Amino acid sequence: MMETHLSSVAMNFSQLPKPFGDWRSLLDRATPYLFLLPALVVLGLTVFYPALQAFLMSFTQYEYDITQPPTWIGLENFQRLLQDDVFWRTLRNTFVYLIGVVPILVTVPLGLAILVNRALPGMRWFRAAYYTPVVVSMVVAGIAWRWLYAETGLFNQVLNGLNLSTGIPWLTSPRWALFSVMAVTVWKGLGYYMVIYLAGLQALPGELYEAAAIDGSDGWRKHWDITVPLMAPYLFLVAVISAIAATKVFEEVFIMTQGGPRNSSKTIVYYVYERAFQDLEIGYACTIGLVLFLLILSLSVLRLALDRRTTRSTPLS
Description:
Structural class: mainly alpha
Shape: flat
Strand order of the largest sheet: 1-2
Number of strands: 2
Largest sheet: 2 strands, antiparallel
Number of helices: 14
Radius of gyration: 27 Å
Number of domains: 2
CATH topology of the largest domain: MetI-like fold
Strand content: under 5%
CATH superfamily of the largest domain: MetI-like
CATH architecture of the largest domain: Orthogonal Bundle
Order of helices and strands: HHEEHHHHHHHHHHHH
CATH class of the largest domain: Mainly Alpha
C-alpha cells in the first residue's frame, strides 16, 4: 500500500508544470551551496575579509595613532622592506629554521613510527610517551626548556659533570640561540608526525613484507624497499606541514628569546608581531605579512607539484 502511494506521488511530481519543475531542479542544484553558506559566511568574516584588509593596508601608512584612518602610500612600504636589514636577517633565520627543522621532522618520526608499529608488550606506553610533548602547551614547554637552558640548568650541569664544558650560553649567545629554539620545535613535533606515519604504516598490507622476506629483503632493508616508497604521500604531507609550521614559528621565540640576542633568533612572524603590536606600524607589518603569505603559498605549490610528479612516476603495480 505504501509503495503504491509513493509511486503515485512520484508520478504527480513528474506531471507538474514545466516552470515548477525548473524551479525544483534549480533548488536541487542549490541545496549543497545552501548547506555550505553558514561556513562560507564564517570564513568570509574571520579569514577572507581580514586577509583582504591586510593586503590593502600593506599599501598604506597606518601607525602610532591608530585612531586616524590609513594613508595610501603605494609601494613605499615595499621599498622600505628592501632596505630593512632586520627583515633580511629574520628571513635568513626563517630559512635556517626551515632547513634545520624540516628534514628531522620528516625522517625521525618515520623511524619512531616503525619502532612503535610492533605488537610487543608495553608498546602503547611508548606511543603515549612519544606523543606526550604534543599535548603539552607551548607556553609550558618553552618555560621548562628555558630552565633547562639556564646557566645553572640541567644541560650545563650535565656538561660540567662530564668535564665537557663549564657552561654554554644556550639562549644568550647569537651562535646558539636559534638552534636552541629549533630543538624545542623538533622535540614537540616528533610525536605529532609519528602518529601521521603510524596511520599510514597500519594501512600497508602485511603480504608485501612477507613477500619481501621470501625474496631476502629483511630487517631495515625491507623498510627501504617497501615502506619508504609506499609512504611517499605521507612523507610529502609531513614535509609541507612541517615546512609551513617552521615558517610560522612564534611561540618558542616569544617565550624563550624574544628574538634576541641581537636579532639572532628573530623569525619573520615574530618580526610581524614586533612591528604591529610593539611599534604600532600596522601598515608595514601587513607588508611583511604579505611576504610571509607568498612564502607559505610557494611552499604549498611546490608540495603539490612534487606530489603530482611522484604520483605520475609511481607505477601502479
